[in-house]
Specification:
340 residues; Alpha-Beta Plaits; 12 helices
Length: 340
């Protein structure tokens, strides 16, 4: 079981609640020291299973969140000595199962905590020069790979395409009911897709386009099976994200559904092949809808929810609206694909 070291700076006025913070069987080890930098503050360090971190963070925020000098930092633990052995609990057959408190319930699927996920995604949706440079470079690489009918080059473009975080951020904002995160993710996502489309159109104007090659022809024929592929890609990408896999690896799962059809549509638009460009763009829109629908559903099934009951209530309403919207759009596109 992966471990997290959580450091909590507790002001002097909150020391009476330390015992409440440390109660329960979810804490593997803890130690404390005084913090001279913060006057009479106390620094508590605990080792917690990764499956219980979200509950511990919520509990600490509930106990000390209103104090001015409260601060919590979480660090991944690579190793610890002596080794922490798992305790095997003996359960009496006649004994009723113990009712777990909220902070004693493990996370579903041993996923990363909500705060870890939020922090990773917040860093990935920043509209920086590096993000724009990666979008431009991945688009050029993908366009040249498609025009040369080179699958390996197209896969390389998917690896460097930074399209994962904005789409996952949009789904997470819906799940948490976080409007600020949603607007930021939407801005970054639309900017990246827009820049990639413009560059693809320009390349389509100046470069020779052969619509019969496999890399183009395969993305101008839209089938209902493409819906299943995009749903699987979105679900796999988000599921891998929630368990802490490398973003460089799981980004390919989402980029495979977005970047090639986007670049193909742009190239064909630039070459004024309007009908084929429409089909490629239709495939892109189908994939965008499926990825976001699968992402929101995966977050919900993983048990990711806001911290407070009030935020949870708002998030449930946002989830219903988002799922209804994505499903409605998907049905409309499925009808268009069927008759097209």
């Amino acid at each position: 079981m992966p471990l997290r070291q959580i450091e909590v700076v507790i002001p002097d006025s909150g020391k009476s609640s330390i015992e409440k913070l440390l109660e329960g069987d979810t804490i593997k080890h803890f130690w404390s020291e005084s913090s001279a930098e913060h006057g009479e503050s106390c620094l508590i360090k605990v080792l917690v299973d990764a499956a219980y971190t979200e509950q511990f963070l919520d509990k600490a925020d509930q106990l000390f969140g209103n104090y001015e000098d409260f601060r919590l930092v979480m660090i991944s633990v690579d190793a610890t000595l002596p080794r922490i052995e798992e305790k095997e609990s003996e359960v009496d057959a006649d004994e009723e199962p113990k009712e777990l408190k909220p902070w004693e319930e493990p996370l579903k699927g041993v996923r990363v905590s909500r705060e870890e996920l939020y922090s990773d995604i917040s860093d990935g949706i920043k509209l920086t020069r590096i993000y724009m440079a990666m979008v431009i470079l991945s688009t050029i690489v993908a366009a040249l790979g498609i025009l040369r009918d080179n699958t390996a080059v197209v896969i390389g473009a998917m690896v460097i395409a930074p399209l994962l975080a904005p789409n996952v951020g949009l789904a997470l904002s819906t799940t948490l009911g976080d409007l600020k995160l949603g607007l930021k993710s939407l801005k970054t996502n639309l900017t990246g897709l827009g820049v990639a489309l413009i560059i693809s159109v320009i390349l389509g104007v100046f470069l020779q386009v052969d619509e019969s090659i496999y890399q183009i022809a395969s993305r101008t024929e839209v089938h209902l099976s493409d819906i299943a592929l995009a749903l699987a890609s979105g679900a796999a990408g988000v599921l891998a994200y929630t368990v802490g896999m490398s973003a460089a690896v799981i980004g390919v799962m989402v980029a495979v559904a977005l970047l090639p059809p986007l670049v193909t549509a742009g190239i064909l638009f630039g070459d004024m092949q309007w009908q084929l460009a429409f089909y490629a763009f239709l495939l892109l829109m189908t994939n965008v809808i499926c990825v976001n629908l699968a992402a929101v559903t995966t977050f919900i099934l993983q048990g990711i929810r806001p911290r407070t009951w009030y935020e949870t209530k708002k998030a449930k309403q946002a989830n219903k609206i988002a799922l209804l919207l994505w499903i409605s759009l998907l049905v409309i596109l499925a009808i268009i694909i069927y008759y097209a």
